């Protein structure tokens, strides 16, 4: 992360920090830098920093990131994958979205199978992993206790996701929501960002597919749903690898990404 980006004052602890600064970002690099400095939600700040200090026994020798985790993927992505929030000992440890935990391992294996990730695992930011045409992000950028952000925390963080989708919008064709939380968080964001969400609002489910028609500001957007690749869902078989690959393959096709099973680093 580039800490030379403009700091824009010392209001990181203000709950209005995301809404005040996110819409003014002119690029994803600037947005990501501001995300990592956010301290707008006291409960999340306390939790992520406590986890980073106490650590899990298996990672005692590692220095945890312990800050908000920005999105990961190219600025010209045509597909966005939206999860829930960073894992306490995953993204909160490594500083990269979906990196260093079981859910991320499952997701990257599927992305690699589809041909839009250069390798089937994501261990740390320096592992050589690259993505093609897809960006990973979440409605909440800090690890929450028990993996459950509050509605207020979700709403405070919403400005970051809205700005991110806006910056991606020139090429964005598809958004994949991993889980009901991501789906429900996305709908008002898409409304705010200038897309027309159908009424009644689309209902989440694995394999759900809603088409948001083009508007004066936005081109047509496909919204796809998948169960979240949480350990609970994958262990119980609620979500299998073929199920996730099918959704991601559909997203890649709708996003105009070439089919294949590998990406050159």
Automatic annotation (TrEMBL):
<feature type="region of interest" description="Disordered">
    <location>
        <begin position="1"/>
        <end position="22"/>
    </location>
</feature>
<keyword id="KW-0479">Metal-binding</keyword>
<feature type="compositionally biased region" description="Basic and acidic residues">
    <location>
        <begin position="1"/>
        <end position="17"/>
    </location>
</feature>
<keyword id="KW-0378">Hydrolase</keyword>
<comment type="similarity">
    <text>Belongs to the uracil-DNA glycosylase (UDG) superfamily. Type 5 (UDGb) family.</text>
</comment>
<dbReference type="InterPro" id="IPR044147">
    <property type="entry name" value="UdgB-like"/>
</dbReference>
<dbReference type="InterPro" id="IPR036895">
    <property type="entry name" value="Uracil-DNA_glycosylase-like_sf"/>
</dbReference>
<keyword id="KW-0227">DNA damage</keyword>
<keyword id="KW-0234">DNA repair</keyword>
<protein>
    <recommendedName>
        <fullName>Type-5 uracil-DNA glycosylase</fullName>
    </recommendedName>
</protein>
<dbReference type="GO" id="GO:0006284">
    <property type="term" value="P:base-excision repair"/>
</dbReference>
<dbReference type="GO" id="GO:0046872">
    <property type="term" value="F:metal ion binding"/>
</dbReference>
<dbReference type="GO" id="GO:0033958">
    <property type="term" value="F:DNA-deoxyinosine glycosylase activity"/>
</dbReference>
<keyword id="KW-0411">Iron-sulfur</keyword>
<dbReference type="Pfam" id="PF03167">
    <property type="entry name" value="UDG"/>
</dbReference>
<dbReference type="InterPro" id="IPR051536">
    <property type="entry name" value="UDG_Type-4/5"/>
</dbReference>
<dbReference type="GO" id="GO:0004844">
    <property type="term" value="F:uracil DNA N-glycosylase activity"/>
</dbReference>
<feature type="domain" description="Uracil-DNA glycosylase-like">
    <location>
        <begin position="70"/>
        <end position="248"/>
    </location>
</feature>
<dbReference type="GO" id="GO:0051539">
    <property type="term" value="F:4 iron, 4 sulfur cluster binding"/>
</dbReference>
<keyword id="KW-0408">Iron</keyword>
<keyword id="KW-0004">4Fe-4S</keyword>
<dbReference type="InterPro" id="IPR005122">
    <property type="entry name" value="Uracil-DNA_glycosylase-like"/>
</dbReference>
């Amino acid at each position: 992360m580039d800490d030379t980006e403009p700091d824009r004052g010392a209001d990181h602890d203000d709950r209005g920090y995301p809404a005040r600064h996110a819409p003014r970002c002119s690029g994803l690099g600037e947005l990501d830098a501001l995300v990592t400095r956010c301290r707008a939600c006291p409960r999340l700040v306390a939790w992520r920093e406590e986890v980073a200090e106490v650590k899990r026994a298996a990672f005692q020798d590692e220095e945890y990131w312990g800050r908000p985790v920005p999105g990961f993927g190219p600025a010209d992505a045509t597909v966005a994958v939206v999860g829930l929030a960073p894992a306490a000992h995953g993204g909160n440890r490594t500083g990269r979205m979906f990196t260093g935990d079981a859910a991320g391992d499952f997701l990257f294996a599927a992305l690699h199978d589809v041909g839009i990730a250069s390798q089937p695992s994501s261990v740390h930011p320096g592992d050589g992993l690259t993505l093609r045409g897809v960006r990973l992000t979440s409605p909440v950028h800090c690890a929450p206790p028990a993996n459950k952000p509050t509605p207020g925390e979700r709403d405070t963080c919403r400005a970051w996701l809205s700005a991110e989708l806006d910056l991606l919008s020139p090429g964005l064709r598809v958004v994949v929501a991993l889980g009901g939380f991501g789906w429900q968080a996305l709908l008002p964001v898409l409304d705010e960002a200038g897309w027309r969400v159908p009424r009644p609002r689309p209902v989440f489910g694995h394999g759900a597919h809603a088409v948001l028609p083009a508007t004066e500001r936005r081109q047509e957007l496909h919204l796809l749903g998948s169960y979240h690749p949480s350990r609970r869902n994958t262990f119980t078989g609620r979500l299998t690898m073929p199920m996730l690959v099918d959704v991601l393959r559909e997203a890649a096709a709708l996003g105009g990404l070439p089919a294949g099973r590998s990406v050159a680093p």
